[in-house]
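Hey, quick one: can you model this chain's 3D structure?
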Amino acid sequence: MQSFTLGAGLAALAFWGFIAAVVVSGVWFDIRKREAQHETVRRIVESGKPIDEELMDKLLSLGSGKSQRLDRNFKITGLIMLPVAVGLVIFGMIMGTAYPQVQLPLLAAAALVACIGLGFLLTANIAGRWYKSDQDSSSNVI
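Sure thing. Here's the predicted structure for all 142 residues.
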C-alpha cells in the first residue's frame, strides 16, 4: 500500500477546491443574470410603458440560451474535442518513451476523448436536421 504525503493531499484538495469554485461561480453568474433580467422587466412595468409580447420574449430568452442553436454548440464542442484527443495521443507517445507504463492509459484517454468528440459531431448533425425540418414545416404553414 502506498503512503501519500502532505503535498499530495494538498494537491488533491486544491484540485477539488478549484472544481467547487468553478461550479459555484457558474451558478452565481446565472443567478445574477436572471436577477438583471427581472430588474429590467420590473423597470419596464414600473415606467408604465405598454409591454408587447415580442419584447418580453426577447428579454426573457436572452439569458436562457433559447436564442442559441444547439447544433452549432455541439459542432463547436466536437471540433474542440478532436484536436484534444490528437494532443493526448502525442502526449502519450512522448511520455511513453520515458515512462512506458503511462502510454497505454494516455492512449485510452485519447480514445475516450475522440469518441466523445465524434459523438458531439454526430449529435450536431442530428440536431441540424431537426432545425432544418422545423424551418421546412414552418415555411409550409405560411
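One thing worth noting: Residues 6-47 form the longest helix (42 residues).
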